Amino acid sequence: MTPIAQLLQERIAILDGAMGTMIQQRRLDEAAFRGERFRDWPKDLKGHNDLLNVTQPSIIEDIHRQYLEAGADIVETNTFNSQAISLADYQMQNLGYELSKAGAECAQRAVAQVRTAQPARRYFVAGAIGPTTRTSSISTDVNNPGARGTTYDELVAAYADQTRGLLDGGADLLLVETIFDTLNAKAAFFAIEQLFANGVRQVPIMASVTFIQAGSNRGVTGQTVEAFWNSISHVPLLSVGMNCALGPKEMRPLIEELSRIAPVYVSAHPNAGLPNPLLPTGFPETPDTLAPQLREWADSGWLNIVGGCCGTTPAHIKLLAEAVRGVTPRTIPRIEPYTRLSGLEALTIRPDSNFVNIGERTNVTGSPAFAKLILQGKYEDALSVARQQVEGGAQIIDVNMDEGMLDSQAAMEKFLRLIASEPDICKVPLMVDSSKWDVLETGLKNIQGKPVVNSISLKEGEHKFIEQATLIRRYGAAVVVMAFDEKGQADSLERKQEICARSYRILTETIGFRPTDIIFDPNVLTVATGIDEHNNYAVNFIEATRWIKQHLPGARVSGGISNVSFSFRGNNVVREAMHSAFLYHAIKAGLDMGIVNAGQLAVYEEIP
């Protein structure tokens, strides 16, 4: 058990308060921010707080020391914007590593000073990783809903540089905080996990989201609390929490919900109320008014870590530490192992859930009408196809751009970015569908929710399977696994069982995939082709489904339903009847979901 986890089992840990508020109290001028090193820098630097790690380190150390002496167990480094994307505003893109390292060193020096006076206490430095000044999920141009301020790859590179600096400077924890764009945060976690996998020093990871709208259950990009949690639940987090934007009154119902659904420690560091420029401090909550409210949260069993954000000072933290002293920390709830996906809203697949319809019409290989729109560049019209599917009952949207005349990567990125600007479409989870790995990756880099990848298989051997599955888990997606291996596609029941069992073992034991994030497709193959050995294909799928649900616990089963009737293409009446009959028996056997045209399914009991 790590030292911080041991502390969190014993009591509620105290996080520090606002760095920016304390810096503002110093009333530093332009020359103070510049220092000697940046005296002739071409951009204004006043307000560039992170730069003080190298130009005025004694000021930053002193602020950390004040918070530690007030009772903080965890101090956050002054590195909120210490990465290339935010530093570009000051033409300092190359200083991300240096400022991050210096920030961690400032905090550790403060800890060393306080430790001499109180050697028995435990202190932790959390490397603060902010959301950047750009967004990868929200359009930056009112005339172009697909425009973005930054890309996933740019974010990963910037966050990796920052993380290296924080770790080299001695950070004990990493805190990805003030998350307003979940895709940005997923890039941060991807960078961190990639560094860990490559051998850098591993430390516990914390996450903290910001919800800006008082009285709303949605964040900046429109995600609900549960959808946000599902989006980042793949990360091996120490804690998840909320900070900034809201005061305690506004944050209260949100932190209550998060504490109920998150199977990790929960943190909260709200602002000192909503900003009010008419007040002397700019915020309404004093130490005397803030502490009792957060004590109530602690008494309610919602907190493991508590502190303050904008407007809070050492005086706030001192009273807060006193207020929660002796209060029993939150007990981590046991969360049922269900398949949990998300768009802007959460989709939980429980044992008693109805069959999940995966809309098939935004697939250029399966819908000639959709393919024609995409090939003609009529993306806005193509969006209406996606919207019709959601309105028709699809709970997941399958997007496939595998067409020889298309730049599939560019088409996938463009369409997913346009979907992200349509709340009535992107409220549901997305399925990124392609036979090309680079297209699948492009899709994953443009989805803030928790999507499904369709698909991977053992076709190219275990090494490639493990490589792709590891990345899919790091991107934060569930995965469809086809019953396909080095010998080819499984058609018999025995081959389906053999391949699915082998895939399940590799995914769960070698990679650490949650069973509930594994969706098997035991191959819906076409019947009535005129070849006798094809006649049992549908029954083989149904029996394989039954076997998977009995022998591979937690895994889900899906299939491309329209394949079964392909011999009857052109005869929609027969095809719809076949689909309904097939689904009737497959769902009884345990089929959880399927790629179907939700608006064209006959009712089984009404089929002549």
The separation of the N and C termini measures 63 Å
Shape: elongated
Q: Biggest sheet, open or closed, and with what strands and sense? A: 8 strands, parallel
The chain-level mean pLDDT equals: 96
What structural class results from the helix and strand content?
Answer: alpha/beta
Helix content: 40-55%
Q: What's the β-strand tally?
A: 20
Strand order of the largest sheet: 1-8-7-6-5-4-3-2
How do you describe this structure in short?
This protein is α/β, with parallel strands linked by helices and 608 residues long. It is built from 22 helices and 20 strands.
Structure commentary:
- This protein has 608 residues and is of the alpha/beta class.
- Helix content is 42%, strand content 13%.
- Helix 19 (462-475) links the parallel strand 14 and strand 15.
- Helix 7 (96-117) packs parallel to helix 8 (152-168), helix 12 packs parallel to helix 13 (314-324) and helix 21 (537-551) runs parallel beside helix 22.
- The termini are far apart.
- The model has no long low-confidence stretch (mean pLDDT 96).
Key words describing this protein structure:
608 residues, alpha/beta, eight-stranded parallel beta sheet, 22 helices
Question: How do the helices and strands line up, and which of them pair or pack?
Answer:
Layout: H1 3-10, E1 13-14, H2 19-25, H3 30-34, H4 52-55, H5 57-70, E2 74-76, H6 84-87, H7 96-117, E3 124-129, H8 152-168, E4 173-179, H9 182-197, E5 205-209, H10 225-232, E6 237-243, H11 248-261, E7 265-269, H12 287-299, E8 305-306, H13 314-324, E9 339-342, E10 346-349, E11 356-359, H14 368-375, H15 379-391, E12 396-400, H16 408-420, H17 423-426, E13 430-433, H18 437-444, E14 452-456, H19 462-475, E15 478-482, E16 484-485, E17 488-489, H20 493-511, E18 518-521, H21 537-551, E19 556-557, H22 572-589, E20 593-596
Parallel strand pairs: 1-8, 2-3, 3-4, 4-5, 5-6, 6-7, 7-8, 11-12, 11-20, 12-13, 13-14, 14-15, 15-18, 18-19
Antiparallel strand pairs: 9-10, 16-17
